[in-house]
Amino acid sequence: MDRTPDDTQNSCDGCAGNCAGCGQPDTPGRHQGKAAEVSPEPAVQIEGDTAMNAKNDKPASPYIVKTDAELKDNLTPLQYAVTQEADTELPFQNEYYNVFDPGIYVDITSGEPLFVSTDKFESGCGWPAFSKPIDASLIEEFVDTSFGRIRTEVRSQLSDAHLGHVFTDGLKELGGLRYCINSASLKFISKTEMEAQGYAAYLSLIP
Fold it and tell me: Which are the contacts of 182, defined by CB distance < 8 A and separation ≥ 6?
């Protein structure tokens, strides 16, 4: 993936421009082109019904993509604006930016697990930050040229929900990437609740 050098993004005093939206709402429907392909990381091996398919390294998805009417009925106005209209929530005023409990983060629109707490770190920008998704195949990346800058937008591959952006200023010991994700696009499932909510197959990802 040819990602944008950091020095083209420094336009936000709070986080040097490398944030989910630099405190500004994104322009709806503007993921303009798919970013260059990268070799995905090896698929995470999980057990149970969501085990990886050996042929294509993708799990058979039990998750349902909702209709627009269903999304409007089930999401809050902010969740809908972020996931369906590529809006951006406020930094430091969102649900998960300072949550570091063990568990998984799932797509608020479909319930599909996207990130795990062991890959979450404090970035100081006011949004949840992850070093990587659970599996690279779960995320699609697009070139975002809104606000006169070039960034890499990340969206859920299954639901096409807008999640945030990925930057190259992450922790070097964790691979150097920072997935800056809107809390409104996620639902956190704590480790203690994962089995009851149908995510027992992902417990092996959390020590």
Answer: 20, 82, 88, 89, 94, 127, 128, 162, 163, 164
Chain position carrying tokens 């999304």? 71
Dihedral sign (CA 109, 92, 141, 120): negative
* Token duo for residue 77: 């106005």
Altogether, the residues listed in the chain come to a count of 207
Range of the domain at 109: 6-30+42-205
Percent residues over pLDDT 90 in the chain: 69
With residue 167 as reference, give the H or E element that holds it.
strand 162-167
The domain that holds 91 is classified in CATH as 2.170.150.20
What are the DSSP calls for 115-131, one per residue? EEGGGEE--SSSS-EES
Tell if the pTM clears 0.70, that is, is over it: yes
pLDDT surpasses 90 at 39: no
**What's the CA gap between 40 and 114, in Å, rounded?**
15
Total of domains in the chain? 1
CA 13 to chain centroid, in Å, comes to: 23
CA-to-CA separations, 161 to 17, 95, 158, 170, in angstroms, rounded: 22, 18, 8, 23
Q: Is 22 a catalytic residue?
A: no
DSSP code at position 164? E
The amino acid at 78:
L
